[in-house]
Amino acid sequence: MGEKVYLGLGSNMGDKAENLRQARECLAALDGVKLTRSSSLFITAPWGKTDQEDFVNQVIEIETELEPLDLLHKLQEIEIKLGRQRHELWGPRIIDLDVLLYGREIITEQELKVPHPYMMQRLFVLVPLLEIAPELQLPNGSKLREVFDSIESRLDGNLIQKL
């Protein structure tokens, strides 16, 4: 169909698991997008701004014909449709949809940086990504499993629990 893309989904307001389900449903309904794999749901402590409720996170794999910025804009439309309001950096949110990887591309646009700049610091991204793509090779040529194993002890230390 198109490019293989990994997206991070997160929610820490309302019915968190339901928010992720609705986001997946909206993604699956997009023209030029096919949902191919989904990780388990994980409960994780907040990252960056820690004085808020825990998150439910997930990583999904899609195949898409959309260009990277077009995909980003569609994700932002879904966030707004589901009630996301941006009040503060890393603050509470009904839904958060992030482009983690877009094929083997390295993107450094004002609006979009891929691989996601904080991806390798977040267990709530790495653990579900490893669950669905354990043999994944990153755009720089390294294997995700090897990178994870080498940095695991230096990560944020936040607990992550499968839901």
Structural description of this entry:
The protein has 163 residues and is an alpha+beta fold. It has one domain (3-162): 2-Layer Sandwich (Alpha-Beta Plaits), CATH 3.30.70.560. 28% of the residues lie in helices and 26% in strands. It has helices at 16-28, 68-81, 123-132, 144-151; strands spanning 3-11, 33-38, 42-44, 55-64, 96-102, 107-108, 113-114, 160-162. Strands 1, 2, 3, 4, 5 and 8 form a six-stranded antiparallel beta sheet that branches. Strands 6-7 form a two-stranded antiparallel sheet. Strand 6 (107-108) and strand 7 (113-114) form a beta hairpin. The protein is globular and about 40 Å long. The mean pLDDT is 89.
In short:
The protein is an alpha+beta fold and 163 residues long.
The outline comes out as globular
CATH superfamily: 7,8-Dihydro-6-hydroxymethylpterin-pyrophosphokinase HPPK
Radius of gyration: 15 Å
* Percent in strands: 25-35%
Per CATH, the architecture is 2-Layer Sandwich
How many helices?
4
By secondary-structure content and strand pairing, the structural class works out as alpha+beta
The CATH top-level class label: Alpha Beta
H/E topology pattern:
EHEEEHEEEHHE
On the 0-100 scale, what is the average pLDDT?
Answer: 89
CATH fold naming: Alpha-Beta Plaits
Largest sheet: 6 strands, antiparallel
As residue ranges, the low-confidence spans are none
Helix content: 25-40%
Oligomer: single chain
